[in-house]
Design brief:
Elements (H helix, E strand, L loop, with lengths): L11 E5 L1 H8 L5 E6 L7 E7 L5 E11 L5 H13 L1 H14 L3 H19 E11 L4 H12 L4 E8 L15 E7 L12 E2 L4 H8 L12 E7 L2 E6 H7 L1 E2 L3 E3 L19 H11 L5 E4 L6 H8 L3 E6 L2 H14 L6 E5 L3 H10 L1 H12 L15 E8 L2 E10 L5 H13 L4 E6 L5 H9 L10 E5 H5 L38
Parallel strand pairs: 1-14, 1-15, 2-5, 2-13, 6-12, 13-14, 17-18, 18-19
Antiparallel strand pairs: 3-4, 5-7, 6-7, 8-11, 9-10, 16-17
Helix pairs in contact: 1-4, 2-3, 2-4, 3-4, 3-5, 4-5, 8-9, 11-12, 13-14
């Protein structure tokens, strides 16, 4: 079962693969609105050229690759989805029959389990908006039909934006993206239709192309079609108050280099676009999730509109841009940052950035609640309570070290185990332990259940999936591997740079 985040306290950013973060942290039916702007399979490499404050970056920074290839990892993930069965399996098999083991199939295979997880976390009254481009939208629509059901489809929104058009030899200029809007519920769905104001009565009259009637000094009106061959009066003052109801074609300018909003992120979307989505499909206080949050436009829009939010991205570049953006626009905002690194390189970033965040990650990997105190912690960073043996809980205390380590720290943990009358101690270190440290752990002996009384694990051990020895099945320690109900796919995250919004 996923751990329920405390949304009532503060918003949260995650650095990690959303396929790992979602099952580990986001509870079933806990999110009101999902907006995702995943990579488009555009076959481009995107770079950052300037900082949030508008100043040039010290050097051109590579943000992410949006190029997909069918690899052995793709094949493994595809087979896991197929073996699980269900509608998602069927539609992917149909894609393979049509596309073969292609780049597009690799992209769709990456998207499938993530959409299944997003369906799990979405409330019955919630909505999902998937942002894509016309090259993949028709495939993604079928995939969404399989995951959410075809009756959940609401709109294929066309986001049209201006630009310098030219005559092309084989096709018209491409000037739009597609946003696929799905909502599982029929009656309980949260949706707020709204209108944009008319600029003037003259604009309304010009668009309607109808003759204005009414004597001088009286309310002016036009005759509107009421259906069934009937016509009714439409008073201009009422029409102006009603406004122009928003339809499924949205003309909103893109972000360009001269825009005041621009943060230098290559695929940044305009605030107006995200604000329209959030206003339409959520209420104040609702939870908005962006699992490919990129430079954080959805996060900023949610914050501005009084929504709670969760952002997930796999790149440190995106996290840095978001934090700089939040600091500039909401200097007093409190939020948490959690990490799910999948390589030692990412663990290095985490340990260098914040030793307390490193401790939090270790406790998350062990499946325990962290007891992280920025000060004296008496050598205890967490506690495992697993089961009752002869009427007594079996307990292990945890000590996490993100910096240099030595044998004295292991001896201190041994003393902490004795002082706290715990059964065992677990010492987790970012750096490799020394031989005297390991010798000290061996000298502590075994517990009554035959478990080492002092155990030393490294960050590398956790990355490789090694967990401490406890007198219960080891798999109970890792929440992210718990799988339940049909169509919740148990898959191995493929580590790719997934970052776009």
């Amino acid at each position: 079962m996923a751990r329920q985040l405390r949304f009532d306290l503060e918003p949260c950013l995650f650095l990690g693969d959303n396929l790992a973060v979602l099952p580990a942290y986001i509870a079933d039916e806990s999110v009101d609105l999902v907006y995702l702007d995943p990579p488009f399979n555009s076959k481009q490499t995107y770079n950052i050229f300037k900082r949030v404050d508008g100043s040039p970056a010290a050097a051109q920074i590579k943000a992410f690759d949006d190029t997909w290839r069918w690899t052995l990892e793709s094949e493994i993930l595809f087979r896991q989805i197929i073996e699980h069965g269900g509608q998602t399996s069927k539609v992917l098999q149909a894609f393979r029959d049509m596309l073969g083991p292609s780049d597009m199939l690799a992209y769709l295979t990456m998207m499938a389990p993530r959409l299944v997880e997003l369906r799990r976390v979405l409330k019955p009254s919630g909505s999902i908006f998937l942002h894509c481009d016309p090259k993949a939208s028709h495939y993604l629509k079928l995939l969404l039909d399989a995951v959410f059901g075809p009756t959940s489809f609401r709109n294929e929104i066309i986001w049209h934006y201006s630009g310098w058009n030219k005559r092309l030899p084989q096709h018209f200029e491409r000037r739009h993206d597609v946003i696929l809007f799905y909502a599982p519920a029929k009656k309980a769905q949260t949706f707020n239709s709204f209108s944009l104001p008319w600029d003037s009565e003259e604009e309304y009259i010009k668009v309607r192309k109808q003759k204005v009637l009414g004597a001088q000094g009286t309310r002016r009106y036009v005759m509107s079609d009421a259906g069934g061959g009937k016509r009714v009066k439409r008073f201009l003052d009422e029409a102006m108050a009603y406004g122009k109801p928003v339809d499924d074609v949205w003309a909103i300018d893109k972000i360009n280099n001269s825009s005041k909003e621009a943060v230098g992120y290559p695929t940044q979307k305009p605030l107006a676009l995200l604000e329209r989505i959030i206003l339409a499909a959520s209420k104040e206080g609702d939870v908005v999730l962006d699992p490919f949050c990129g430079c954080g436009t959805a996060i900023e829009a949610a914050q501005r509109l009084g929504r709670r939010w969760i952002g997930i991205d796999v790149t440190k570049i995106a996290l840095d841009v978001i934090e700089e953006r939040l600091g500039k626009n909401f200097p007093s905002l409190t939020y948490s940052v959690r990490f799910m690194p999948t390589t030692m390189e990412e663990v290095d970033v985490l340990a260098e950035r914040d030793k307390y965040a490193f401790q939090q990650w270790v406790c998350d990997q062990l499946g325990i609640d962290a007891d992280i105190r920025k000060g004296a912690d008496k050598g205890i960073d967490g506690e495992i309570v697993r089961y009752v043996l002869a009427g007594k809980p079996w307990r292990a205390v945890v000590s996490v070290k993100g910096g240099g380590v030595n044998v004295t720290q292991v001896r201190d943990l041994r003393g902490t185990v004795e002082r706290e009358k715990a059964d065992a101690g677990i010492f987790v270190t970012y750096k490799q332990p020394t031989k005297p440290m390991r010798d000290e752990a061996v000298a502590a002996g075994l517990t009554d259940e035959g478990v080492p009384k002092l155990q030393i694990l490294t960050a590398q051990d956790l990355i490789e999936g090694h967990l401490p020895a406890v007198p219960v099945p080891a798999e109970t320690l890792r929440r992210a591997e718990v799988v339940a109900e049909p169509e919740r796919l148990s898959v191995v995250p493929t580590h790719r740079r997934l970052s776009s919004a």
